[in-house]
Specification:
By secondary structure, the chain is of the alpha/beta class. The chain has 13 helices and 15 strands. It has helices spanning 16-35, 49-52, 95-105, 149-164, 177-186, 194-201, 204-218, 223-232, 240-244, 254-269, 331-340, 362-377, 391-400; strands at 39-40, 46-48, 66-68, 86-90, 113-122, 134-143, 170-176, 275-277, 291-297, 305-309, 324-329, 351-356, 381-386, 403-407, 410-411. 32% of the residues are buried.
């Protein structure tokens, strides 16, 4: 069998320069979020299939990397469907594992509990720019806080981080699942229609009103109800009250509107966040129960992060009723944008490279190694290298990586 040197589809090798950037951004994420009281946790990358295929993950459940049962438990002869063959899968996000984690460890955690997770997740998606089958997610979640203090703290911490790493021209858009649901019911649909309708509405920015209408009709929804529903979105106002006054108040409590207005007001006026109401924002996960939000960047296709309130999820794993809200940074997309913006990792320590001939005496070699040892004690990065056949290329690479180079005792840059 031939050795294949390229990664499997949707996976990738990451070169040292990008690894340096990634590690720096992760350190910024950890440091800034810790200022808001978030504590780092870890969960397994493998989850019970019952947990991650529970119809709460929306379209992502179609993308689970499932893991076959092992040993005697794997019986191909008697298997009638896939469920007989698998018992676990790779996590497709960090929210479901967090919910299980909290249900399992609640007695040992603070209340409210502010969690920070950074880790790989896997989705059997179609690879494209900014989208991989294995990628890093960075999540902050507040469990046990039912007031909108959770939303405002999550938004403030995330905006602080984005400002600190120098992300330009971004804004946070916000909506509420209960507003989305109210508009579905006001148009005459049933509550069980919400999930299917939301999937189509979520494509509004890509396919427009006509495309959403075509998709809903193809899903055999009543044309009169579809027309009534989509007419409400012709007033795509960023003013929440103007938008919500289109439907009868019996479908939508004023408290829901006021809550969203308060989150936006605090975010703008206290935390100086660029935030606006987005009537067609849906978020793909089925577990959201209240406010939802996303980060969008001018000139970049797709969101760079998102989250929302999911008050009912933890109760599905235990008898605990725990309000919950979270915000996830699209780490890979953030890295892509920073690379496009030619972001340079700040580094107070200098880099030195000593290039020496292979045949120098042990005394001369020891002199360079002693110099390297002394510089390293001062916190500087030092590379001691044997001169390559292609010395020019060797020097070019070191120069590109900001090294101060000494070749056989002579400084050359």
């Amino acid at each position: 069998m031939a050795f294949i040197k390229t990664p499997t589809k949707g996976m990738r090798d990451i070169l040292p320069k990008e690894v340096e950037l990634r590690e720096y951004i992760i350190s910024k994420i950890t440091n800034i979020y810790s200022l808001y009281g978030f504590k780092k946790i870890e969960t397994p990358c493998v989850e019970h299939i019952e947990n991650i295929a529970n119809k709460e993950g929306g379209e992502n459940e179609k993308l689970i990397f499932k893991i076959l049962k092992r040993g005697e438990k794997l019986n191909l002869a008697t298997a009638e469907d896939v469920s007989d063959l698998v018992d676990s899968g790779l996590r497709y996000d960090l929210t479901v594992p967090l919910s299980r984690y909290y249900a399992n460890n609640a007695n040992e955690l603070d209340s409210p509990f502010k969690a920070l997770q950074i880790g790989n997740v896997w989705r059997a998606d179609r690879p494209q720019k900014g989208r991989f089958r294995q990628f890093v997610q960075c999540d902050i979640d507040i469990l046990g806080e039912k007031s909108n203090l959770a939303e405002t703290e999550l938004i403030a911490a995330t905006a602080n981080l984005l400002n600190e790493v120098g992300l330009k021209n971004y804004k946070i858009i916000i909506n509420d699942r209960r507003i989305l649901k109210a508009f579905v019911l006001a148009a005459g649909f049933q509550e069980e229609d919400c999930s299917s309708i939301f999937i189509s509405l979520d494509k509004m920015d890509k396919i427009g009103l006509d495309g959403v209408k075509e998709e809903l009709l193809n899903n055999e929804f009543n044309e009169e109800q579809v027309n009534k529903y989509l007419s409400l979105y012709q007033n795509n106002s960023q003013n929440i009250f103007d938008f919500c006054q289109q439907i009868d108040s019996s479908f939508l409590s004023e408290d829901i509107i006021n809550n969203l207005m308060e989150i936006m007001s605090i975010s703008k006026n206290v935390n100086a966040v660029n935030i606006e109401f987005a009537p067609t924002l849906v978020r793909g996960m089925g577990y959201y129960t209240g406010p939802i939000f996303e980060i969008i960047v001018d000139g970049y296709k797709g969101s760079v992060g998102g989250g929302g309130r999911y008050d009912e999820m933890i109760g599905k794993y235990s008898n605990l009723s725990v309000p919950a809200c979270g915000f996830s940074i699209g780490f890979e997309r953030l890295i892509d944008i920073l690379i496009e913006q030619n972001y340079v990792v700040p580094n107070e320590n200098k880099k030195y490279a000593f290039i020496i001939d292979s045949n120098i005496s042990i005394e001369e070699k020891s002199k360079y190694l002693e110099q390297a040892k002394s510089l390293r004690k001062q916190g500087h990065i030092v590379n001691v290298l044997i001169k390559a056949k292609n010395t020019k290329h060797q020097i070019d690479v070191l120069t590109e990586n900001k090294y101060k180079i000494t070749l056989n005792g002579k400084e050359i840059n």
